[in-house]
Design brief:
- This protein is α/β, with parallel strands linked by helices and 203 residues long.
- The protein has one domain: Vaccinia Virus protein VP39 (Rossmann fold).
- It has six helices and nine strands, in the order αβαβαββαββαβαββ.
- Strands 3-2-1-4-5-9-8 form a seven-stranded mixed β-sheet, with helices on both faces.
- Helix 2 links the parallel strand 1 and strand 2.
- Helix 1 packs parallel to helix 2 and helix 2 packs parallel to helix 3.
- The chain is globular, with a radius of gyration of 16 Å.
- 35% of the residues are buried.
Length: 203
């Protein structure tokens, strides 16, 4: 069975890593939500050896992630666990405190419906330790406007594919994040009209 491949992951992994180097500089255990093909996970685990990188996705996407984890030979990357935003999820230590002090996701919030974006923030709020770091990569609109013509075209394509998907408004994301106990630390401009938002959990 051929492994799934994303050219976008190959194109953006170095730029994302340059931000994660700083954002996760004091982090130990990172949960990646929506690991997709597994390309990001392997690249980041290889270049951030101080981290334990936990992959996750819907069960239907596990094959490529699992094979890339095995092929990498890295001892700081974990096989994918099933994470479905339509269901409640909780990863805790024996004392019922959150297990992860870092969470990363790339190109997910514009794929899922808005109710699942809301559930995403509920989940990360419940599964990240206080002072933990949340990193979100992808395209966003600002003040209700697209940042480029290509993003507007991409949004049209997304909605033709699934009317419930689409590029999210930065301000709406900040509102959800604040309600879940997060504060925006930095908003990084990334290649191809994307952003990387770094949040700190304050509550």
């Amino acid at each position: 069975m051929e492994l799934a491949f994303s050219q976008a992951c190959e194109n953006n992994k170095s730029a994302i890593l340059s931000v994660l180097n700083q954002a996760f500089s004091t982090t130990n255990k990172v949960l990646e939500i929506g690991s997709g093909t597994g390309q990001h996970a392997v690249h980041f685990a290889e270049h951030l050896p101080q981290l334990v990188w936990q992959t996750s996705d819907l069960a239907t996407n596990h094959f490529s992630i699992q094979q890339r984890v095995i092929n990498s030979g890295l001892n700081n990357i974990r096989a994918p666990i099933t994470l479905d935003l339509t269901e409640d999820w909780s990863f805790t230590n024996d004392n019922s405190t959150p297990y992860f002090d870092g969470i990363f996701t790339a190109n997910t919030l514009h794929i899922v419906s808005w109710p699942l974006v809301q559930r995403f923030f509920t989940g990360v709020g419940n599964n990240l330790v206080k002072d933990g770091t949340l990193c979100i990569y992808g395209p966003f609109n600002y003040q209700g406007k697209f940042t480029s013509a290509s993003n507007q075209q991409f949004d049209t394509w997304l909605k033709e594919r699934d009317q419930l998907s689409g590029i999210r408004d930065f301000e709406a994301i900040i509102t959800l994040a604040n309600a879940a106990g997060f504060s925006l630390i930095t908003d990084h401009t990334m290649p191809a009209n994307n952003r990387l938002l770094v949040f700190r959990k304050c509550e």
